[in-house]
Specification:
alpha+beta; tt1808, chain A
Length: 226
């Protein structure tokens, strides 16, 4: 079961403090990454491989610092090293990977700075170790939360679902607002539109809709407290 975001953030703060003086790739990369995954409640040993051997084009063998096949490739460097070169090194490993092994993300770090590359979206995010807590949701897939993108035609899109509720209400000019918003009296087509809107709003906060209103309120209060 995925950890809640509050616990993940607490772990992220602790991680940042414990590793703030770390600097050496050879000595510290593996324990650093083990604890990095632990922030999200994930055992790196179960999902990934350290020093994953791969054939590089015309250059013999290379070794990826950490590879979670089909998910993320991580390349670590000692503090102050060139992260542009680290990213290029990570890209150079890609031709040697099988199709199912290709990662969705590349993360490069020198222990102090992080750069996360979303290869599907073509996005790049930089942050400092001390700001890790404010960027944990970038790693939602690692944490066990489904990544979701919204399209204009997606029925779970808030911007698409909200006007439907208003349009349906306008189609019943003889009904009062009480009738239109009472679950016992509202037209069935209105019930469906409200359900789609509720689902869209829920999915803006987390990958699965809430099972009831109580769970929704509990989650929102937890989010507020964080």
């Amino acid at each position: 079961m995925a950890l809640g975001w509050n616990e993940i953030k607490e772990r992220a703060v602790k991680f940042s403090k414990e590793w703030e003086d770390t600097s050496n790739e050879n000595a510290d990369a593996k324990p650093f990454l083990v604890e990095f995954f632990n922030v999200f409640g994930i055992s790196s040993r179960r999902v990934s491989t350290f020093e994953h051997k791969v054939k590089k084009l015309g250059e013999g063998d290379g070794y990826i610092d950490l590879l979670w096949k089909g998910n993320i490739l991580i390349e670590m460097k000692s503090r102050g090293k060139d992260l542009d070169r680290a990213y290029q090194q990570a890209r150079d490993y890609m031709p040697g990977l099988k199709e199912y092994e290709l990662p969705k993300y590349i993360l490069v770090s020198d222990f102090e700075y992080f750069r996360l590359y979303d290869l599907d979206e073509g996005k790049e995010t930089h942050f400092h170790l001390c700001d890790f807590v404010n960027n944990v949701q970038l790693f939602s897939v690692i944490a066990g939360y489904q990544k979701r993108t919204y399209k204009d035609e997606d029925p779970a899109n808030i911007e698409g679902a909200a006007p439907k509720v208003l349009d349906i209400s306008a189609a019943f000019p003889c009904s009062s607002l009480v009738d239109l918003y009472d679950p016992l009296t509202m037209p069935s087509v209105s019930v469906k539109a409200h359900q789609e809107l509720d689902k869209a709003v829920d999915l803006a906060y987390r990958p699965q809709p809430f099972i009831n209103e109580t769970k929704r309120i509990e989650f929102l209060f937890e989010l507020y407290d964080s």
